[in-house]
TrEMBL record:
GO BP terms in the entry: SCF-dependent proteasomal ubiquitin-dependent protein catabolic process
InterPro entries in the record: F-box-like_dom_sf, F-box_dom, FBXL15_LRR, Leu-rich_rpt, Leu-rich_rpt_Cys-con_subtyp, LRR_dom_sf
Annotated GO CC locations: SCF ubiquitin ligase complex
Name by which UniProt lists this protein: F-box domain-containing protein
Keywords linked to the UniProt accession: Ubl conjugation pathway
One Pfam family, short name: F-box-like
Alphabetical list of PANTHER family matching this protein: F-BOX_LRR-REPEAT PROTEIN 16 (PTHR13318:SF193), PARTNER OF PAIRED, ISOFORM B-RELATED (PTHR13318)
Domain of life: Eukaryota
Protein's organism: Chironomus riparius
Gene3D superfamilies according to UniProt: 1.20.1280.50, Ribonuclease Inhibitor (3.80.10.10)
Occurrences of domain F-box (ranges): 32-81
Length: 604
């Protein structure tokens, strides 16, 4: 890769096949014969600017592109999942992954209820374990001996996630005697996740953490929900003891939706050497005592860059004021569903000069005044990349007008449910100024019409600003916009990079669906639930043109029949998820869909 710059100097990116006729050249646009001569360094440089799904598609163009896709730096985008099959007709034997013809690099493996005690499975771990960087156990019952047998082959693993709730149910820890896992040390592991586990105990926690001596990030989110208070406090005491012993190296903690009290937060804040960069917390305590509990924690973590307080019922203006006063390096602040937050707290956000991502969704007491003075004050902020303000019913159009030019480089904008602020005029300002958006959510903004998306008030009117201005848009959530018609799909939806589209409860017909299928070829997720005009003919048009579909949603589409299932079976080779709930089918769709290799989930 060090030679890429030199190749860029001497090779111009023009693939021309020419013939000479008396000092003139004829340029033939077909570049296929020359693809085998492209330098691999140039191909790798080009591929580095693509997203993973586009990489997979371009890898099927020719063998040269497929070889470039095997570059080791690209392997971080793929994960090999052993999951429950929708049908047993296409069971892939483990030994195929260890055969000589398989030369792929597997950096990450996820196990969904897989059996790990088969001899061929052990061959798999022995074959790939040395190169694995991430291992995930996401469901199932795993014996301690099986876990130790896997870990002994993955010496270079960097991330371990154990999110199988029943995995530790039958584990017994022997503090004396021989134990194979106690002899395994994973020195390269930096992140250890134990999320969504209800059967944790202090002994199991210490037993597992002993294998990762250099861990810097611990995930204990959504845990301890079924424990009684004495058991929970005993477990948290052991967690604090471990953090105290390894305070200098720990930089990230996740306790989201895990019950904690003021005493735990106070003791966590009094650990001298603990300097976190990232903290996830669901705060349910008190702020009355300024020298006990969360005030001590906030004051001690002045280097924090990401703070997640999502769904914290006791997070109020005082908490936000302390955050803005002590954590000057804050880059990501998430305050979703903090219902006690008001304009007084939001006004303090103007002190965070390095903020890149902000979420204040579903905060009922926040109005235009707080957003204007706290978020949209001063000069335009080029660093802001993500802003989420969904379900903010007290906002008006003035916020959208100012926001549109205040954050010119915004990539993620969530305005779902902000029906009073998102109108045809205000969304025109978004299309005019925010041309770098990759994600846009305007769900349930029922005032939007065709004019808002197309910029055309009538057929002969001068065009203003259209959705097509957002050429890099990849995700659009527009569920519940019942005033949109086929004209919007045919005129505004010319988005070559659009990957996910959610337009449930919209009044589109076959005319608009045809235009959508032709103008948005990269769609992978499409939600047309509760669209009354969707029938078998629409399904055929969608599946024939959108060959990259992975998720289809046709919930409550009454006109879909058995013919649609046959069409999906024939046209959707890569489909993984199909939602056809309440479609009034007179048969079991499993019979028609049994021969789809990639299908993982059918909800009917």
């Amino acid at each position: 890769m060090n030679e890429i710059s030199s190749y860029e100097k001497y090779f111009k990116m023009k693939i021309l096949w020419y013939r000479e006729f008396e000092a003139t050249f004829e340029y033939v646009h077909s570049a296929v014969p020359c693809l085998d001569y492209l330098p691999m360094e140039i191909l790798i440089k080009i591929f580095s600017h693509l997203n993973p799904s586009d990489m997979l598609c371009i890898g099927l163009t020719c063998k040269r592109f497929l070889d470039a896709l095997q570059y080791h730096a690209f392997s971080k985008y793929w994960i090999l999942s052993f999951c429950e099959r929708y049908t047993s007709n296409f069971a892939i034997p483990y030994y195929l992954f260890t055969s000589k013809c398989c030369q792929r690099t597997v950096p990450a493996v996820a196990m969904y209820s897989a059996q790990l005690d088969e001899p061929t499975v052990e061959d798999f771990w022995e074959f790939y374990g040395h190169n694995l960087h991430e291992v995930q156990f996401l469901s199932g019952l795993l014996r301690k001996e099986e876990f130790a047998n896997v870990m002994k082959y993955t010496k270079n693993v960097r991330t371990i996630r154990i999110e199988a709730n029943s995995m530790f149910k039958n584990w017994t820890i022997q503090k004396c005697g021989y134990d194979p896992l106690r002899r395994i040390l994973l020195y390269h592991c930096r992140h250890f996740g134990l999320a969504r586990n209800s059967f944790l105990s202090p002994d199991i926690f210490e037993y597992l953490m002993m294998t990762v001596p250099n861990v810097t990030s611990i995930d204990l989110s959504n845990c301890l929900s079924i424990m009684n208070p004495p058991e929970r406090n005993r477990f948290l005491d052991h967690v604090l003891a471990y953090i105290n012993e390894n305070a200098e190296q720990i930089k990230s903690l996740n306790f989201a939706n895990t019950p904690t009290d003021d005493l735990f937060l106070d003791r966590l804040g009094r650990i001298d050497d603990l300097k976190l960069k990232e903290l996830h917390l669901t705060f349910t305590g008190s702020t009355k005592n300024p020298v006990f509990g969360i005030p001590i924690l906030i004051a001690s973590q002045n280097e924090l860059e990401k703070f997640d307080l999502t769904a914290s019922p006791c997070a109020n203006d005082l908490i936000v004021r302390m955050i803005c006063g002590c954590m000057k390096n804050m880059k990501v602040l998430l305050l979703k569903k903090c219902h006690n937050l008001t304009d007084h707290g939001v006004k303090e956000l103007c002190k965070l000069k390095h903020l890149k991502s902000l979420e204040i969704s579903d905060c009922d007491y926040v109005t235009d005044v707080g957003i204007m003075e706290g978020v949209l004050s001063g000069d335009p902020k080029d660093k802001m990349e993500e802003l989420r303000l969904s379900v903010m019913t007290n906002l008006t159009e003035n916020i959208i007008f100012r926001m549109s030019y205040f954050f010119p480089n915004l990539k993620v904008l969530d305005l779902g449910g902000v029906s009073n602020a998102v109108t045809d005029i205000s969304i025109q300002m978004i299309f005019r100024h925010m041309k770098y958006l990759r994600f846009l959510n305007v769900e349930s903004c029922c005032k939007l019409t065709d004019f808002g998306f197309t910029g055309l008030e009538s057929t002969y009117a001068k065009r203003m600003h259209s959705l097509r201005n957002l050429k890099g848009l990849q995700v659009l959530r527009a569920n519940g916009l019942y005033k949109l018609t086929d004209f919007t799909l045919s005129d505004a939806f010319v988005l070559k990079e659009l990957k996910e589209l959610y337009v449930a409860r919209c009044n589109f017909t076959i005319k608009g669906i045809t235009s959508l299928a032709e103008n948005c070829p990269s769609l992978e997720v499409l939600d047309l639930s509760e669209c009354k005009a969707i029938d078998d003919e629409c399904v055929e048009i969608i599946t024939k043109n959108l060959t990259r579909l992975k998720t289809l949603k046709f919930n409550n589409c009454d006109k879909i029949t058995e013919k649609s299932m046959e069409i999906i079976t024939n046209n959707c080779a890569d489909l993984r998820n199909l939602f056809i709930r309440n479609c009034k089918l007179d048969f079991d769709p499993s019979d028609n869909l049994a021969y789809m290799r990639a299908l993982r989930k059918v909800v009917s």
